[in-house]
Amino acid sequence: MNKPLPIAIGHSACPHDCPSTCALDVEILDNGEIGRLRGAEDNDYTAGVICAKVARYAERIHHAKRLLKPLQRIGEKGAGEWREIEWDDALDLIAEKFLAAEIAHGSEAVWPYQYAGTMGLVQRDGIHRLRHAKRYSGQFDSICTNMAWTGWFAGAGAMRGADPREIAKSDCVVIWGTNAVATQVNVMTHAAKARKERGAKIVVVDIYDNATMKQADLALKLRPGTDAALACALMHVAFRDGKADRDYLARYTDDPAGLEAHLASRTPEWAASITGLPAEEIEAFAALIGRTPKTFFRLGYGFTRQRNGAVAMHAAMSVPAVYGNWRHEGGGAFHSNSDIFGLDKSEIMGSAYRDPSVRHLDQSRIGAVLTGDREALSGGPPVTAMLIQNTNPANVCPEQRLVNRGLMRDDLFVAVHEQFMTDTAKLADLVIPATMFLEHDDIYRGGGQNHIVLGPKLVDPPATVRTNHFVVEELARRLGVSRHAGFGLTERQLIDNMLKAGGHVGGYDALKAGRWIDKQPDFETAHFLSGFAWPDGKFRFKPDWTGSMAPNRPPESLGPQGPHAALPVFPDHVELIETADAAHPYRLATSPARQFLNSTFAETGGSRQREGGPALMIHPEDAVREGLQDGAVVSIGNPRGEVRLTLKVTDTVKPGVLVHEGLWANGDFLDGEGINVLTGADPVAPFGGAAFHDNRVWLRA
C-alpha cells in the first residue's frame, strides 16, 4: 500500500490552552488527512518551533478511539452502556431537557459549562450567545488565570507588557514560575537565542528541577508559595546596595519611600528562612539583576496557583520596577498581552442581550454547585441541565469527588460535546462528537505573544461530527432564540464582522492572505514609559486589592473572594497557603506534564508512552524516613480524599515537597480517581481562582 504523500501546506494556529498560540504549517496529504505539523518559520514569535505533542497532531485527529457518533446513555450513569442515535434526535433531546428544566425551576436551572479546550473565539465563546439569549446561568471563569491576572493588573493597571520577542535581546532572562520547556516552548526559543548571541544568563525560579530549570545558569528551587518572600529580598538588596533606580522610582511608582521602609527587614536571611533558598543564592540573584539593566522577567501562571498567588505575582513584577529594568529594550517584564488585541466579541457572545440580574456560578466550584450548596448556587435553583463544551470537569476541576458526585445525580441531565470519551463524557446522559481545530474555521489571539492568527478549515471532518458553532445554532433554533442578533451567521461571517469592527478593513479575506496580524504596541507603550495604566500613571506598590478594577473581577453578586482582608499593603509574603502540619507533613503540587496539555493528549499513545504513567516525586530523605523505595505504591491524602499512585524517588524535588506531573485520566490511577481529588476549590483572595499547587497531604505506604 502506498504511503500518503503531502500535496499542500496549510496554515493555521494551535488552538490549545497555552499562551504561545503557535502559528502552524500543516501537511495536507493526498488522502485528505494531515501529516506533520511544524511551527511557521516566518512568524517571528513561533520562529519555526512548536511542542512535540502538537507536532504529532495526526495521531490525535486520526485516533482510532475518536468519538464519531452521538451516543445516548441506556444504563446507569457511568456504567458505559450507550446506544447510537441520530444528530437530530440528540439535539431534540437537549432542547427538550433544557425546556423541562426551565419550566420546573426557571431558566437559571440550565448551566452551559465551557472553558478553553479550544481558544478559538468563535468555537469557544459562541455558547455564551445561547446562554444570554435564554437567560441561562452565567459562569464566573475562575479556574485558570485569576490569581496571575489580578496580581499583574494590581501593579500595572493593564494586561500587557514588554514585547516577548525582546527576550532574545536580553542580557538576563528570568523565567519565574513556569516550566516553559513543557508549557511555553517559544519562551525557551528566544531565551536560547539571547544566550547564544549575547551571552545572556538564564535564571529559573521554580519549586522543582523541571526541564526548564535544568537549562538554567542560576536555578532557584524554593518552597511552594514563598515566591513573594524571594521578591521582597531582591528588592531589599536593591535599596541596600544602591542598585534601586531612584530616578525611575520617583517618576513611575506610587510610594517608593514607603516600599523601602517596608522592605528594611525583608533581608535575604529573612527570605531564606521562608523560601528554603540559601541566602547566598538570593544575594547572587540580586547582584546579577543589579549589574544587568537588560533583565527580562517572564512571569508564568504556575507560581500563582497558590492561595497567596495574586500577592506573589504582584511582588515578582515589582522587582523590575525597583531596579528600573523597564527602561531598557530586553528588560522589564511580561506575563500576558490579553489587552492589546482590540477584538470585540460582542456579536459572537450575544453580549447585547446579557441580563446582569442572572446569577453567576463559579466554574471552579462546580462540585459545590452540583451538590446543592446554597452559597455556591447564589441562593438560586438547583442546576438540572447542562451542556458541556471545551472542558473536562470530572478530571480537571478541584474537589473531584464532589464534582463527580454532582454529575452522577439522577435528576441532572448532562450533554457533553467532545472529541473523546473523557472522564466527564463517561458520566453524561448524552455524548455528541466534536470537530478538531483543523476541521473548522476560527480565529485566535495569543495571550503569551502578540499576534492575531487565523485558523481556517483545512480538512473535512468525519461526516458524523459537528462544530461547537453548529450545536449552538441548532439549539438556538429549537429553543426559539435563533432570530436574536448574532445567530444565523457562519463562522467566517462572525470573524469577518469582528475584524472589520476592530478596524481591520480587509476582514477575513485579508487575514487569510496575511495569516496573522502583529498587534504589539510600540516600545514606549509596552514598557509603560508614558506611564502605567492607572489614572496617575504610576506603578502601584500599594494596590487597592478589592476597590479597583481587575481583568476578571467577580460579578457584584459574588463580590470579593477568599480572605481578602489579610492581603498586605506592600509586596510581602503572606501565610494564606496550606502549610504542612503534623497530620499533613507534605506539600503537594500538581504540575503540568510535558506531553499533556491539561487533560488533552492524555488519550494519544505517543504522549502516554513518553510520560510513562501517574507517579509521585519524593525526595530521597523523605523516602528513607518513610521506609519507602522507588516504585513503591503509596497513598496520599487530606480531608478531601486520598489517591494511590507509584513513587518516584528523586532529588528533583525539595524535602517536604511532593510533585505529581500531568492530568492523567482518572482511570489511569490505581483506584480510578485522579489527582484533583486532593485539590481544593475554596476561592483565592481577592477575586477567586483555584489553588491547584497548594495542598497539604499525608503519605502512607
From TrEMBL:
Q: Which InterPro entries match?
A: Asp_de-COase-like_dom_sf (IPR009010), MoPterin_dinucl-bd_dom (IPR006657), Mopterin_OxRdtase (IPR006656), Mopterin_OxRdtase_4Fe-4S_dom (IPR006963), Prok_Mopterin_Oxidored (IPR050612), YoaE_C (IPR037920)
> Does the record bear Iron in its keywords?
yes
4Fe-4S Mo/W bis-MGD-type domain location is 7-65
Instruction: Fetch the CDD domains from UniProt.
Output: MopB_3, MopB_CT_3
Q: Which domain of life is it from?
A: Bacteria
Keywords for this entry?
A: Iron, Iron-sulfur, Metal-binding
Classification via Gene3D superfamilies? 2.40.40.20, 3.40.50.740, ADC-like domains, Dimethylsulfoxide Reductase, domain 2, Formate dehydrogenase/DMSO reductase
An example molecular function term from Gene Ontology annotations: oxidoreductase activity
Determine if Mitochondrion is one of this entry's keywords.
Answer: no
Q: Tell me which family the UniProt entry assigns to this protein.
A: Belongs to the prokaryotic molybdopterin-containing oxidoreductase family.
Specify the protein name. Answer: Molybdopterin-dependent oxidoreductase
* Protein species of origin: Jiella pacifica
Q: What is the lineage of its organism?
A: Bacteria, Pseudomonadati, Pseudomonadota, Alphaproteobacteria, Hyphomicrobiales
